[in-house]
Design brief:
about 270 residues, 7 strands, 3 domains
Length: about 270
C-alpha cells in the first residue's frame, strides 16, 4: 500500500518530504479530534448579559488591563465623516450642474431623490447652504476625540455579551479530557505507528465495549477483541503497557484495575 506525493520541492530528500507530510497529517488528525470528539467550537450557551465594568471581575486578571485599555475609532466621528463625504459628493454635483448652466448647456430634470433645481440662483443658494453645513459638521467632528475606550462605548451603547462562565468550565473539562487522551495516544502510537489511521484505530479500541466485574479489591475490565488480527495485536501490546502503570480507581477504594480481553485467562 502506498500514498502518492506531489511536490515542487526538488532539493529535499524524499524521506524529509514524507516526514513533513506525516507531521501535517498528525495536525489534521488533531484538529479533527478536537472538533469532532470534544466540540471545541461548540457554544454551550446563548445566554447574554449587558456589558458593564462589573463584567471585568469575571475575566482572568491578566486580561483585565488589556481589555480595559483597549481603544477603538470614535464611531461618532466615523459617522460624521460619512456624512461629510456625502455632502462633498452633493456639492460636486451642484457645482457641475451650475457650471453647465453657466456655459449655456441644457440640463436634464434631476430624477434623483435630491431633485436639484435647474435655476442657477437656486443652485448657488443650495451650494452655499450645503457648504455651511459641511463646515459646521467638520468643526464638530474635529472637536471629538479620535479614539475612545471600547468597553465604555459598549456599555453606553447597550451592547450585550455572551455569558461564557459555563463554557469556561466545559472548556477546562474538554482540555483535560483531550490531554489525557493525548497521553494515551502517545502510548498507542508506539504499538501502532501508522499515521494514516492511528486515531481511528484508537477510537475503535475505546468503542469495542466489554464487561466490568469486581473481584475482591480488583476491578476487572474485559474488552471485546478488535476486528482484525493486526489491530488486536496492537491493542494487546497497548494494554500491557497500561498495566505496567498499575492503574487504580479514584474515590472510594481505591481499587486496582486489570484490563484484559475475552480470550485471555483471568486470575
Amino acid at each position: 500500500m502506498c500514498t502518492p506525493i506531489c511536490t515542487t520541492d526538488h532539493r529535499s530528500a524524499a524521506s524529509d518530504i514524507v516526514a513533513r507530510l506525516s507531521l501535517r497529517w498528525r495536525q489534521e488528525n488533531a484538529f479533527k479530534i478536537t472538533d469532532g470528539d470534544y466540540g471545541w467550537d461548540y457554544i454551550s450557551t446563548y445566554k447574554t448579559e449587558p456589558y458593564s465594568r462589573e463584567a471585568l471581575e469575571q475575566i482572568p486578571p491578566f486580561l483585565r488591563e488589556t481589555i480595559d485599555s483597549r481603544t477603538i475609532e470614535n464611531p461618532e466621528r466615523r459617522r460624521m465623516r460619512r456624512q461629510a463625504e456625502e455632502l462633498r459628493r452633493l456639492l460636486g454635483r451642484i457645482a457641475e450642474r451650475r457650471q453647465r448652466l453657466r456655459e449655456g448647456k441644457k440640463v436634464k430634470t434631476d430624477q434623483s431623490r435630491l431633485r436639484l433645481p435647474k435655476d442657477e440662483q437656486a443652485l448657488d443658494e443650495l451650494h452655499e447652504s450645503k457648504s455651511t453645513e459641511l463646515d459646521e459638521l467638520e468643526a464638530k467632528r474635529l472637536q471629538l476625540p479620535s479614539k475612545i475606550n471600547r468597553l465604555e462605548h459598549l456599555c453606553e451603547s447597550d451592547f450585550a455579551r455572551l455569558d461564557f462562565s459555563k463554557k469556561w468550565v466545559l472548556d477546562i473539562l474538554r482540555a483535560t479530557a483531550h490531554n489525557v487522551r493525548r497521553m494515551a495516544l502517545n502510548t498507542w502510537m508506539t504499538v501502532y505507528p501508522d499515521w494514516r489511521d492511528y486515531t481511528q484505530r484508537f477510537r475503535d479500541l475505546l468503542q469495542v465495549g466489554g464487561v466490568l466485574q469486581m473481584k475482591g479489591q480488583t476491578l476487572h475490565v474485559r474488552l471485546k477483541k478488535m476486528p482484525q488480527p493486526r489491530y488486536q495485536h496492537a491493542a494487546e501490546a497497548f494494554i500491557q503497557r497500561l498495566q505496567k502503570l498499575k492503574p487504580m480507581t479514584l474515590g472510594i477504594g481505591p481499587y486496582a484495575i486489570k484490563i484484559s480481553f475475552d480470550n485471555e485467562p483471568h486470575s
